[in-house]
């Protein structure tokens, strides 16, 4: 008998519990979808359309709602002979500048027609923009440009200035570009340059975290498809929903928790998934979520985390934000990326505290120094190094931090508590 054997006692079809699964309908987002439909309606009416920006934390339905709405938009637009609609989608997860986004857009457009990609280096930014405008003009009509996780570009926001003005500036003749920006950072717009804010003239749609009842509504049809009849105890879906609602309000977290509970039940040979499996799954995923939370930080967030890890490696923690900021700006200089203000660094630190990645101490020195905060990592340094090593721009920094930590004997060989 082989080591691996097919086991279908628990799962009937696990696809509805996969991150890539696209449901037939979008639940618990009626108000947001109504706003989205109003924002896209001018395309069907064949008139100028505002840019659209979606804000919300990870797992609140922004991306799945966009795929759902654009799919319907494309189907409905096909009924009209006078509408020429194209969409192009770029994930900005590993892109930290307008230059990189423009290159990615050019290559996405060229690949869709079987053309040759351009190199990611060797061009001036304006030349890449010119190539992008040429590629867009080939399409003609209305082109919806989706920039997912656009907050990764930080202050390098020229792409958000150039694209909306391309037609009025004469860079394109036959197209109307419409930008759909998707951001995990509610404060992203606040940090755009004034000229970009003025040019975008976008409609904003906020996706708040789900509550437990909403998550239960989202989970139930997926669970019905994913598991055999009678496998789920009655309290499993409500408990998964409650855990996720109390933590992040993320549907993705609730779905992963349900899948993990099923896998644990399958592993121990159980024919039912119980509350115990959910609680054990929660413990397991909490560790994984810390790692994923670090991975999903923006480039600026990674730079702040890198600065704090370096101070940790030197055994110089807890550290005040003003001292951490000096190291952060040096890292940005080495990365050749713009640094943000010290206030924004504190915002990133606050986000990391909410994710459980760092620990914050409030100090009160009285009249001499007043109140201030100090920060240190709340996860093993080795775990942070693993994340930085997996992010190409931070590999060199990870090596430097590793050497400093080794010199100070701060790297633990056992990270079982992580």
Automatic annotation (TrEMBL):
Listed SUPFAM superfamilies: P-loop containing nucleoside triphosphate hydrolases (SSF52540), Winged helix' DNA-binding domain (SSF46785)
Residues engaged in binding ATP: 60-64, 210, 222
GO molecular function: ATP binding; ATP hydrolysis activity
Domain Cdc6 C-terminal: 305-388
UniProt KW Nucleotide-binding keyword: yes
Keyword terms, alphabetized: ATP-binding, DNA replication, Nucleotide-binding
BP GO annotations: DNA replication
Gene3D superfamilies (alphabetical): 1.10.8.60, P-loop containing nucleotide triphosphate hydrolases (3.40.50.300), Winged helix-like DNA-binding domain superfamily/Winged helix DNA-binding domain (1.10.10.10)
CDD domains reported in the protein's UniProt record: Cdc6_C
Domain (AAA+ ATPase): residue spans on this chain: 48-206
Family: Belongs to the CDC6/cdc18 family.
PANTHER family: CELL DIVISION CONTROL PROTEIN 6-RELATED, ORC1-TYPE DNA REPLICATION PROTEIN
Reported function: Involved in regulation of DNA replication.
Protein name in UniProt: ORC1-type DNA replication protein
Species name: Natronomonas moolapensis (strain DSM 18674 / CECT 7526 / JCM 14361 / 8.8.11)
Gene that encodes it: orc3
